[in-house]
Amino acid sequence: MPPRTVKLRAATVAAVLALGTTLLAASPQAGAAEPDPVTDYCQGQCDDILPPGENGNATLVEILGNKAFGTHPAHSDDQLDRYNGLVAGHSGLTDQKLTDFFNDASFGVPKDQVESVTSPRDDVTITRDKASGVPHIKGTTRYGTEFGAGFAAGQDRLWLMDLFRHIGRGELTSFAGGALANQGLEQQFWPQAPYTEEDLEAQVEQIRTREGARGEQAMADAQAYVDGINAYREKSKKGRYFPGEYVLTGKIDAITNIGEIQPFELTDLISIASVVGGQFGGGGGGEVQAALSLLAAQQKYGVAEGTEVWESFRQREDPEAVLTIHDGTSFPYAGKPDKARGTALPDAGSVTAEPLIYDRTGSAGTDRKAPVKAPGALRKAQGIYDDGVIPEGSLPGSGSGAQKRGMSNALLVSGKHTASGNPVAVFGPQTGYFAPQLMMLQELQGPGISARGVSFAGVGMYIQMGRGQDYAWSATSAGQDITDTYAVDLCEPDGSTPSKDSTHYLYRGGCTAMETLERTNSWKPTVADSTAKGSYRMQVRRTNYGIVTHRATVGGKPVAYTSLRTTYRHEADSIVGFQMLNDPSYVKDAATFQQAASNIDYAFNWFYADSRTAAYYNSGMNPVRAPGVDPALPVRAERAYEWQGYEPGANTAAYTPFAEHPHSSGQDYYISWNNRQAKGYAAAGFGLGAVHRGDLLDDRVAKLVEEGGVTRASLTRAMAEAAITDLRGEQLLPELLKVIRSRPVTDPELNGAVQQLESWRAAGSERRENSPGSHAYTHADAVRIMDAWWPKLVETEFKPGLGDDLYGALTDSLATDESPAASHGPSGAHSGSAFQYGWWGFVDKDLRQVLGQPVKGPLARTYCGNGDPDSCRDALLTSLKQAVAQPATHVYPGDDNCKAGEQWCSDSIVHRPLGGIGQKAIHWQNRPTYQQVVEFPAHR
Q1: pLDDT band of 394, cuts 50, 70, 90
Q2: From CA 75, how far away is CA 53, in angstroms rounded?
Q3: How far apart are CA 764 and CA 44, in angstroms?
Q4: Is the pTM of this model over 0.85?
Q5: H helices within 741-774, ranges in order?
Q6: Where are the beta strands (DSSP E) in 143-209?
């Protein structure tokens, strides 16, 4: 297919021509007719959006044009303004206006809307529409359909797929450059899923041979997909319309075309799946840090009271937490045992992290630059990756201090509460903002496949979230506990006394050697990344109980703490579940949807809507733990405490059955924003308490259901309103003000600040422009005061009572704040997602305890003012006075995108460039990146 471009100014074209006129060579000619449409039971009532645009490849010409003049390749940014426009446009939204802000997600392309048709083989066509350039792939054979999907993925995400296979293999710096952020990223992800090439091949073979006919078909589909990617890789290389990043990173010479884009292999898909699953589908872990905070509590208060205090902050099953299944149905899992067995708490002060990096040379561990002398025409693109191909913290779960990932939201209302009598759903994954996105839109139509939606680039054999002929589905990260920490006793093979540094451990009675896995990476400066020459070696130790993460002593004896997740060595097994979701002969109703979702191993909340039913299922390889094991803390690595049926070679065990996973059909409504799933289903980490961002959805949807007559537009409005609301202002400011207003505020400056906060709360606590494009919030001062006040009030409220050590340990387990302007959230600054991680629930319970209000599941102690209302009020006013005095330049210190003091800009969403094309900043929204709005009026 010809590269989708816009016309560039003459100066840019001339500059690139100086590198060699062959860069502008034409790509293969299009060839086949528009495929016939399939039956679409949504009848024009399915919409979707994925900013900034479908096209994620850019030639060198296009990259230079973007850097010099801000031009964009066609369809690389044409969904951005519609996505952004919902901030101002949601108030007056009607069903008829939805396509002002979303794509029409109907199957097929009307003849007058066909932009191009490509036929990479005679058994498949790739039709792209004029509106968005989305590929609509239709095959007459199964192989052809999947080949076409791979070919289209190459057209739209070739460079991105190459990046992610190298991230998964721990080889990013050798591939894309040694920028400090690149070093950090591979050091973050590779230890979570370190594999040898034989390990990757074994996972492919496992799916092919042990997952029955569907597993065999899945690997055949995956091979066809890889073949399609490689076909485009070869054609684009020969035609010289491959992504320009290969030139800028020194992979291909711009003039001679010498160089290579390495072929893709099936094992690359396993590597990519490990990154995607690690970001969005993990759950649990962190038991060592939990143990440290428990020890700090016991040190301060004694074992009994300290444990009670810690448990009140841990909030495993907070009775006030918002739930997805709210009808009282219980699904017990991973709860606190009545009497714990095998818990392995470290001795105080003995924990050390396992080293990862060895043998540093040159710029390793630094950000030292040594720019190359770039040809004149390339200077506009020089240094585009100096801060990394993916800036630190941009990927969910990555970066210093990052929390566990948990993104995405869903709102569904059953038909008895809608205007039409059919269920309505507004849902999608919240996966950060990148240019191009990690996912790509596509439609797949072929034998046994009929769906439109998104797939993560590089594993797009099937639609992972989207719509079928008469149903739609989506997911949110669930985060339930599928990862445990074991304390393995260390030993020496000669029987001598072990130390913390020993590399052997006791396994079922034998002294066993740890397996060493290594990656050695080296780099040198390129046009794209000026980082000076350097290298290092990454090393992890693998045991039969997982990857070593820490060393410590327990009862004076040396141990290694290991992390074991159920999905390790099973990174792509979920392919079978996705295959089922795309198969119209399998998914026919809510029950078959739930069965399909149960074949997905990662921890996700799955939502479904057709014309009759809204439904939900929680997937994941939930291990059956030994009786008495506390999953929140490290456990001894002894057979009595292993997962039931555990076999380490293939990392298999007994898993909880379908019926024990939270699931439901026909509930009045469902919401999810990474909140707790159901009663009895224990939280895997801190922060799922009385106030959660899920409340922003639950309160609004419950009100809509009570009123009745819900429409696509009204449910979208509820989502969009929640997306610009400050959780602290809506849920916590009323309690804060009640304490403060218990007596008159006599300080004029403080009283003025309180009045500003009151006005903001009365107006809805929104972070919203006073007019479209103004880049100034309506209640800018109140927002600034809250942003400055929150971290101070939390510290003032809790630190005096908890003490420095315990407060520090608890904040290590759960950060106090995640406002839109914060830079420590799960996906860094400018990432959209906000208010997931914070001390909102702790502040809420504590203030209600001070006020003497009823509290279910209270904190073990009252902290604000040591429980005295007047002292609490004084503490809050003291912290507020400090916040009021902070200028905007201090609250919003500025970064590479914003000047100090620029509040709107500090909040704004920035699509982090993963390639050479940048995008403009847009208004903050706490909203799914890819989103569907669906209402099926008919069914097969």
Answers
A1: low
A2: 5
A3: 33
A4: yes
A5: 748-762
A6: none
